[in-house]
Write a structure and sequence with these properties.
The complex is a heterotrimer of chains A (363), B (257) and C (146). Chain A is globular, with a radius of gyration of 21 Å. The N and C termini of chain A lie far apart (50 Å). In chain A, helix 3 runs parallel beside helix 4. Chain A has two domains: 232 residues, Rossmann fold (3-Layer(aba) Sandwich), CATH 3.40.50.970; 120 residues, Rossmann fold, CATH 3.40.50.920. Chain A is built from twelve helices and 16 strands. By secondary structure, chain A is α/β, with parallel strands linked by helices. Chain B has 257 residues and is α/β, with parallel strands linked by helices. Chain B has a single domain, classed as Rossmann fold. In chain B, 37% of the residues lie in helices and 17% in strands. Chain B has a seven-stranded mixed sheet, with helices on both faces. In chain B, helix 8 links the parallel strand 7 and strand 8. By secondary structure, chain C is α/β, with parallel strands linked by helices. Chain C has a six-stranded mixed sheet, sandwiched between helices. The radius of gyration of chain C is 14 Å and the shape is globular. Classes of the chains: A alpha/beta (363), B alpha/beta (257), C alpha/beta (146). The interface between A and B is large, with 39 and 36 residues. Bound molecules: thiamine diphosphate, iron/sulfur cluster and magnesium ion. The site of iron/sulfur cluster (SF4) has 11 residues of chain B, from helix 9.
Chain lengths: 363, 257, 146
Amino acid sequence: MPSEKMLMRGSNVVGEAAVRAGCRYYFGYPITPQNELPEYLSARMLDVGGTFIQGESEVASINMVLGASAAGGRVMTSSSSPGISLKQEGISYMAGMELPAVIINMMRGGPGLGNISASAADYYQATRGGGHGDYRTPVLAPAGCQELAELTFVAFDMADKYRSPVMLLGDGLMGQVMEPVIFPDFIDLKDLPKKDWILNGCEGREPRAIFSMLLGQGELYHHNLDLQKKYDQITAEEQRWETKNTDDADIIVVAYGTAARIAESAMNDLRAEGLAIGLFRPITLWPFPSTAFRELAQNGRKVAVFELCLGQMVEDVVLSVGERAEIYFYGVPGGVIPTPAEVADFLRSVAKGDGEVGRRIDV
Amino acid sequence: MSAEVAYKQVFGWPDSLKKNPTHYCPGCGHSIVHRLVAECLDELGMREKTIGVPPVGCAVLAYNYFNFDMVEAPHGRALAVATGIKRVHPDKLVLTYQGDGDLAAIGTAETIHAANRGERITTIFINNAIYGMTGGQMAPTTVLGMNATTTPGGRDPRLHGNPIDISRMLAVSNGVVYVERCAVSSFKQIRKAKKAIKKAFQCQLDDLGFSIVELLSPCPTNWKMSPKAAWAWVNEEMVKTYPLGVIKDETGYEDKK
Amino acid sequence: MITRTLFAGFGGQGVLLMGYVLSHGAMHKGLNVTYFPAYGAEMRGGTANCTVTLSEEKIASPVASNPDILVAMNFPSLLKFEPTVVKQGLVVLNSSLIEESPSRTDIDLLQVPTVELAREVGSERAGNMGHGGSSQGQGKVLRTQP
Ligand SMILES: Cc1ncc(C[n+]2csc(CCOP(=O)(O)OP(=O)(O)O)c2C)c(N)n1
Ligand code: SF4
Ligand SMILES: [Mg+2]
């Protein structure tokens, strides 16, 4: 049975959803603005007989995740930007070893220690692999509490399906905002996917080894080609997005996560003024929903990209539509949250083509 | 027939060791320790219930030699990885096999904290006072005066810091129940080392806490010595910085003579 | 109808709790709700505010450009946020702490002697509750509920 409607903050929503999705292992290190998540899980794991460890660092935590995943556990870690940087080595290993796990990044302002407010400046890091080597991790970008709950389930399933780390990319604001949520029902742990590759002692079978070091002639080469096949499959099958008011739109705003919600408010206000604005919200950031977006951004429509950083996703927009549309960009640097009114100014400026707010991207 | 019955097998290839030739240099301590670990697991009947974590270091390919489940860890993170495994499979014997650079330099935090949590894990710690795999650079355990490729003229405490005695540091933690330092540089010491390893595993099986056996281990290649000279150097020089013996024992086991 | 209320004051005044209680009540009344807290690194003594948006429709942004209602628990909050309130919006002041009046004339004003009211019901610490209640009792929010 789904839960009753509950008023919860984003961070806690992820924690509750993870438990309901069958996650019984959590390893993490405190960092604002996502501390409520490990705090919540430290208590919740006691209820359900799971494991919670506050690791000595993000480095240790991601490697505990690696071990638990190799041992067959449904496992998760969470952090915010500086901590995610520290986890990258482990994420690269897990991609190479094809180990599933869910990694939450509640992004904050950077670079460096930056600040603890919301930001979306880790888009490159999240969508381009983040660590060393030729790999990608699927990235899901929820835009509110209900979606945080639902995409947490999706993230665990995708991780197992593709044997890959999957990242859920939120931000400091999303982690703090409270909204009513209805949680999906608890997964019966017996229904979790059977894994025939895990390490649990070699009784009755040959010993297994899981590793990423491939020194033999051609081994790494073929391993990378196999990984690429998997990434191609994910790109073909997993693109997710949402559109609003796009049918009659002259301008399509592209934004994800918290930025998409601010943009949507701006769109609603401007529609009342008679401007035909539509919204395209990528839900998977990798794979970027290029196919759907390319189709939408035809017919002389203008494209207006809005980000909580100074321009990262806009590159994927450019890669998707190239010169087929005029592309404009407006971004706010890390750790500052703009209001719908500011975004509305940008969109008015795009409509007029006066270049007063934001800038035209030269493709 | 009856003649065969009269023979009892007293020595053979341990089940816990695959029949693969190792890549270790002649005279290297790693291969001796592999053999000891395998013999102990066989004797405890634990091969099929063991999950091991090799290091990044000369023993990175240990999964090609050990005949049980193993998973690679990034350099230094073996005890974090092992923690994750042990929490999923508390009923399995989980071991890490780590060099001095792996355990006492890049992985110091993971080592201290896993031990201090009292993780039911056994660590086999190969102290060869050098970075073997990368070609003989200074290790945290390199002894004073010793030449490494990054300590020209010998390790100088003012320039390079002091050799670290991580086993003694770990011993002060309440999570740690058993710490012994042995060597694999004489037959007598090798036999002692085996006893210590077995005891450390037993300690985990009895759910007592964290256990670690440090093994002073010759690296003839990077010490630029013959295997024989390397053994002698361990016995005569290295033990001055790292004296052998039990460092901590709260197992309560009576040592069977 | 959509109503955005900004609660602001210093940490420890229960500003976040006021917003939370309103959000909770509204959810149980069947409204859509977003509660967006903002506070500095320090939880006590620093500034704190939260924005509660209530609507019968789905709420797009939890971040509001301009609040319909400002609940100001101290003078710096009044100074900072008064200019952002919509025309004909409502400002609810904690008159136990704020002697000044807003400079704007295009808003409704409600002055609540929070501390005195709370003392009447027996606990100064209940000040935030009394104050939060006044902001909504004015009818600007619950009016959305038939
Ligand atoms: C993050 C990272 N840094 C550096 C290395 C390179 N590296 C591989 S093994 C090693 C040192 C190994 O020394 P030790 O742990 O003493 O093992 P030994 O080879 O002596 O047995 C280093 C520095 C690495 N693999 N990963
Ligand atoms: S380099 Fe040293 S530690 Fe490595 S295999 Fe050779 S002898 Fe052993
Ligand atoms: Mg070494």
